[in-house]
Write a structure and sequence with these properties.
The chain has a domain of about 60 residues: Roll (Nuclear Transport Factor 2, Chain: A). The strands form 2 sheets. It has a 3-stranded antiparallel beta sheet with strand order 1-2-3. Strands 4-5 form a two-stranded antiparallel sheet. The protein is an alpha+beta fold and about 90 residues long. About 15% of the residues lie in helices and about 35% in strands. The longest helix is centred in the last third of the chain and has 15 residues. A hairpin with a 2-residue loop joins β2 and β3. The protein is built from 1 helix and 5 strands. The protein is extended, with a radius of gyration of 18 Å. The mean pLDDT is about 90.
């Protein structure tokens, strides 16, 4: 085997005062600059409540999606299009 470079261990500084939030919904809006605006919303008895807002660029969001799909072992297929509109396939 060829020598492989050592992977640098990433140190993440944890923020002990950052709250853990429960969310039920994710709303994603695509921006004209290639960025995406993500809103995470909780479905509370008082109504839908925004819990977090994030800005992220497309390439990084694709990496996030890859991590989520790998973790869940779920790989959705691209929806079919009928008359130019995306039609979701039913889950089996």
């Amino acid at each position: 085997m060829a020598d492989q470079p050592e992977k640098k261990e990433i140190q993440v500084r944890l923020n002990p005062v950052l709250p853990t939030l429960f969310v039920d919904h994710l709303v994603i809006t695509k921006r004209s600059d290639g960025g995406f605006f993500l809103r995470m919303i909780a479905d509370l008895p008082e109504g839908w409540t925004e819990q977090a807002k994030l800005m992220i660029f497309g390439e990084r969001l694709k990496k996030f999606a890859d991590v989520i799909c790998t973790t869940l072992d779920y790989y959705p297929s691209k929806p079919s299009k009928v008359n130019g509109k995306a039609i979701a396939k039913e889950a089996k």
